[in-house]
Amino acid sequence: KAGVTQTPRYLIKTRGQQVTLSCSPISGHRSVSWYQQTPGQGLQFLFEYFSETQRNKGNFPGRFSGRQFSNSRSEMNVSTLELGDSALYLCASSVTLDRGVGNEQFFGPGTRLTVL
Amino acid sequence: GQNIDQPTEMTATEGAIVQINCTYQTSGFNGLFWYQQHAGEAPTFLSYNVLDGLEEKGRFSSFLSRSKGYSYLLLKELQMKDSASYLCAVWDTDKLIFGTGTRLQVFP
């Protein structure tokens, strides 16, 4: 079974631009979560999608948005990029509807975004 | 508020045992995960605890005390390949909250 895939793996943008990152979950997984990882802050939750609906959202500004398609693939978009948006963006998928007990998440390799 | 604390860095010797601690304060609790992340790679699942006690999986064990808001990951018979970051994460009601991770370096 193929794992979680993310494209692109690396991206360089300049301030003010916008970017779209893509995530394909493991086949059969309907929940996709996005995280931002930086050296100082660790992994921070951005949002989670299930069946094309955003179920939960972290504490990020509205410049960060996402969506999920009927095949469970998900995209996240960051508009008006800032230097501080430079980070590794990870997506994770999980199979269960229950957001609680035992809901193991499988991570993709991430997209390394550098904002100049 | 939500807070998960773990040591930033630890070092150990090949063949030794190391314990990585994690303390948490969250508004809800539906279980605690430990993930391993090698540099430049995705986090991979190590263990999950939802009830108090010790869960053993080969060289790795994880312990949870819900009343103390405390967990630890125990790594035995350390190998060089265990050099990685170890992330503690708590399911807080409906989302996974991560600590900043503990970078473990194993020396020969």
Question: Which class do the helix and strand fractions of chain B yield?
Answer: mainly beta
Individual helix count of chain A? 0
Radius of gyration of chain B: 13 Å
Number of strands of chain B: 11
Query: Quaternary status of these chains?
Result: heterodimer
How much of the sequence lies in strands of chain A comes to over 45%
The most extensive contact between chains is:
A-B, 26 and 23 residues
Summary keywords:
heterodimer, A: mainly beta, seven-stranded mixed β-sheet, 11 strands, 0% helix, B: 108 residues, mainly beta, six-stranded mixed β-sheet, five-stranded antiparallel β-sheet
Account of the 3D structure:
The complex is a heterodimer of chains A (116) and B (108). Chain A is mostly beta strands. In chain A, 0% of the residues lie in helices and 52% in strands. In chain A, strand 5 and strand 6 form a beta hairpin. The N and C termini of chain A lie far apart (37 Å). The mean pLDDT of chain A is 91. With 108 residues, chain B is an all-beta fold. Chain B is 0% helix and 59% strand. In chain B, the strands form two sheets. In chain B, strands 2, 4, 5, 9, 10 and 11 form a six-stranded mixed sheet that branches. In chain B, strands 1-3-8-7-6 form a five-stranded antiparallel sheet, with no helix packed on it. Chain B is globular and about 40 Å long. Chains A and B meet through strand 5 and strand 10 of A and strand 5, strand 9 and strand 10 of B.
